[in-house]
């Protein structure tokens, strides 16, 4: 039997991206995630998406209380993709990967408690850990395989490498920072969001002063490049080294425009 030619021209492959933004709680990740049209949050039923709502986001939310809810959402979008060939959203946002990983362990422990009554529902045993890592990373891959853009958020953690250097990375647990690195490796681009204080400038780019002193302002910067202290990467070719105060819509349009339409160095909103 002849083997079918399944080769595609690169131009035929859809340009969907998988992004991940990590940072401290309250830094602005969720607000950023809700700042585009046609966004669906897959997020816990708490006040986590309140910041996006108050910023005027028109996003929808698929409430997630447990791991089974997350799988239900994934399977819904998989069925939609199978039926229609695409998903009618700009972004699916999983907010956050840190919380979803914890839900995965709670799911494993509840399952084990049902199978073995003697098991402590709050105490993982050695065989639970590898299942936890595998189950979480498998679902990350399955979400990222959907025919749409996917954005993950995560909290930030710090570790020390073999040479004693401290660095920031997504707060995903397992095998030191190995599982966090695996999680990040599944992304097209990922970066760390931080609040920075910078000189305020007018529309022409001139520094603003008040009473002879420079005026400062807070901006939210996402560093999409590995700096040694901050882990990041950018396969789109348009986000690194960092973006400042861009909305998710602006980031999407920047990616869609391609590298030739990007201003050099810093990308900032007007």
Please provide a written account of the structure.
- This protein has helices spanning 29-33, 50-54, 67-84, 97-115, 126-144, 178-185, 248-257, and strands at 18-22, 39-44, 60-64, 91-94, 149-154, 156-160, 166-170, 189-199, 209-210, 213-214, 216-223, 233-234, 242-244, 267-268.
- It has a single domain, classed as P-loop containing nucleotide triphosphate hydrolases (Rossmann fold, 3-Layer(aba) Sandwich), CATH 3.40.50.300.
- The mean pLDDT is 89.
- It is built from 7 helices and 14 strands.
- Strands 1, 2, 3, 4, 5, 8, 11, 12, 13 and 14 form a 10-stranded mixed beta sheet that branches.
- With 270 residues, it is α/β, with parallel strands linked by helices.
- Helix 4 (97-115) packs across helix 5.
- The longest helix is centred in the middle third of the chain and has 19 residues, at 97-115.
- Helix 2 (50-54) links the parallel strand 2 and strand 3.
How do you describe this structure in short?
By secondary structure, the chain is α/β, with parallel strands linked by helices. It has helices spanning 29-33, 50-54, 67-84, 97-115, 126-144, 178-185, 248-257; strands spanning 18-22, 39-44, 60-64, 91-94, 149-154, 156-160, 166-170, 189-199, 209-210, 213-214, 216-223, 233-234, 242-244, 267-268. The chain has one domain (14-268): P-loop containing nucleotide triphosphate hydrolases (Rossmann fold).
């Amino acid at each position: 039997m002849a083997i079918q030619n399944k080769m595609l021209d690169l131009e035929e492959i859809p340009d969907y991206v998988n992004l991940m933004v990590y940072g401290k709680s309250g830094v602005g990740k969720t607000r950023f995630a809700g700042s585009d049209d046609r966004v669906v949050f897959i997020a816990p039923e708490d006040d986590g998406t309140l910041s996006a709502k108050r910023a005027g986001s028109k996003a929808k939310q698929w409430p997630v209380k447990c791991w089974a809810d997350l799988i239900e959402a994934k399977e819904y979008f998989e069925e939609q993709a199978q039926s229609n060939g695409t998903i009618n959203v700009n972004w699916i946002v999983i907010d956050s990967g840190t919380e979803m990983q914890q839900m995965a362990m709670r799911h494993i422990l509840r399952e084990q408690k049902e199978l073995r009554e003697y098991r402590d529902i709050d105490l993982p045993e050695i065989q639970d850990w590898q299942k936890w890592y595998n189950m979480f990373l498998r679902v990350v891959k399955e979400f990222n395989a959907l025919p749409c853009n996917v954005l993950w958020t995560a909290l930030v953690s710090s570790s020390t490498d073999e040479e004693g250097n401290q660095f920031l990375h997504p707060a995903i647990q397992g095998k030191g920072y190995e599982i966090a690195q695996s999680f990040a490796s599944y992304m097209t681009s990922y970066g760390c969001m931080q609040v920075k204080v910078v000189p305020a400038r007018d529309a022409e780019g001139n520094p603003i002063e008040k009473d002879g002193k420079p005026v400062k302002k807070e901006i939210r910067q996402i560093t999409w490049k590995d700096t040694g202290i901050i882990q990041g990467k950018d396969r789109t070719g348009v986000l690194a080294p960092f973006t400042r105060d861009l909305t998710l819509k602006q980031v999407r349009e920047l990616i869609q425009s391609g590298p030739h339409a990007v201003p050099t160095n810093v990308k900032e909103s007007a």
